[in-house]
Specification:
By secondary structure, this protein is an alpha+beta fold. 26% of the residues lie in helices and 32% in strands. It has two helices and nine strands, in the order E-E-E-E-H-E-E-E-E-E-H. The N and C termini lie far apart (75 Å).
Length: 163
């Protein structure tokens, strides 16, 4: 990112990659790299100079990378289809301390529960653990559930003297 205080400077990108440009009503220009994966362009014009820092702090480069939609229930509410394990690539170039200024993967578990700030090794580790869970679900839990249901159907009513 470069800051330019020269009003003569054009808002055109100087390099072949994409950029975003924010121009204040006072003529200050702030540019930054707009990555190929970012889904929106935060460019703005006529931002009040006293609001520039807040506008920059709100810039989040984000890309939805898919996920899983499942039927969920909260409390005693009705079931609804919601994003579960939603994956995004995020970068907060002007974030506060502790916010990643490098692209990271964030994984929304459900509602507002997240696994955040995964680097490439963290994504691989999570993928391996999810694959192991998927293998356990299909290879162990599903057969155990089928056996438990068969056992329940065969014995539940037969053992109940009230029936």
């Amino acid at each position: 990112m470069t800051r330019a205080h020269d009003d003569r400077e054009s808002a055109r990108p100087r390099s072949p990659f994409r950029t975003w440009v924010v121009t204040t009503s006072g003529g200050e220009i702030v540019r930054g790299y707009l990555p190929w994966w970012a889904q929106d362009d935060p460019s703005r014009t006529a931002v009040r100079p006293d609001r520039l820092q807040f506008h920059l702090a709100g810039i989040v480069r984000q890309a939805d990378r898919g996920g899983l939609v499942a039927r969920v229930v909260t409390g005693t509410g009705s079931a609804l289809d919601a994003g579960v394990l939603v994956v995004t690539i995020d970068c907060v170039p002007f974030g506060e301390d502790g916010e990643a200024d490098l692209p990271v993967v964030n994984l929304q578990i459900v509602d507002d529960f997240w696994i955040r700030d995964l680097d490439p090794a963290g994504v691989v580790d999570l993928g391996r653990r999810l694959r192991a869970l998927a293998d356990r679900l299909t290879g162990t839990v599903a057969p155990e559930l089928a056996a438990a249901r068969a056992d329940w159907a065969a014995r539940h009513r037969a053992d109940d003297p009230a029936i």
